Amino acid sequence: MWTYFICLTLHILSAMVWVGGMIFYVIVVMPVIRNQKLKDQKLTLLQLTAIQFRKISYTLFFILITSGFGILFSKGLLREDNLFTFFTSSIGFMFSLKIGLFGFLFVSSVYHDFVSGPKTFLYLESDPVQYERYRRMSGLFGRFNLLLSLFIAFLGILVSRGVSFF
Ligand code: HEM
């Protein structure tokens, strides 16, 4: 029972920090950075805050995966005799959908954080066309990741209350 509550607490807290952190970035950090008073430091601030959030993100992903599987394990759903019944049940399908979307989120975050984001800063002074291309791409992937994370959190809430789309 304790394992379940510890894993669940860690899971909910890391989901809060991940989703809440992204929302905070969009509604507080970005508008502050865009303030005219910070015109000269705008790009440095953007780059430093992005790198700081990137460091936190992958630690949170690790906690979300381990605590998520910890929850399943503590509920006995990963036992060999239960595994097939669970994954072929309607809640099991919901869970598989959640894991699949999480995999998608992971790949999309890696692209945003390690490819399009860094390339935006790389081309900042050398190539305006490439800069604009990667800037748009980073914005697009950033928004997509936030929406996907909200949907994954919503699926988690449904799964934990026994609600399924299937
Ligand atoms: C962006 C990633 C994720 C977010 C935002 C997220 C969020 C959530 C939320 C909000 C809940 C509902 C908790 C409750 O109301 O009791 C939940 C439940 C759950 N999540 Fe996740 N989650 C994520 C990734 C994962 C991953 C990768 C796994 C598995 C490896 C996982 C496994 C679970 C399980 C098993 C539950 C059900 C908890 C219960 O027993 O009630 N989650 N998740």
Task: Walk me through the structure.
The chain is built from 5 helices and no strands. The protein is mostly helical. It has one domain (2-160). The model has no long low-confidence stretch (mean pLDDT 95). The protein binds protoporphyrin IX containing FE (HEM). Protoporphyrin IX containing FE is lined by residues 8, 11-12, 15, 18-19, 64-65, 68-69, 71-72, 98-99, 102, 105, 149, 152-153, 156-157, 159-160. Protoporphyrin IX containing FE binds next to helix 1, helix 2, helix 4 and helix 5. The chain crosses the membrane at residues 12-33, 56-78, 84-107, 140-159. Keywords: Membrane, Transmembrane, Transmembrane helix. This is Copper resistance protein CopD.
Encode the helix/strand succession as letters: HHHHH
Helix run count: 5
> How many beta-strand elements?
0
Give a short account of the largest sheet.
none
- List segments where confidence is low: pLDDT < 50 over at least 5 consecutive residues: none
Q: How big is the Rg?
A: 19 Å
Q: Identify the bound ligands.
A: protoporphyrin IX containing FE
Mean pLDDT across the residues is 95
Oligomer: single chain
> What is the share of helical residues?
over 70%
Bulk shape: elongated
What is the distance, rounded to the nearest whole angstrom, between the alpha carbons of the first and last residues?
Answer: 28 Å
Percent of sequence in beta strands: under 5%
Please indicate the count of domains. Answer: 1
Q: Given the helix and strand composition, which structural class is it?
A: mainly alpha
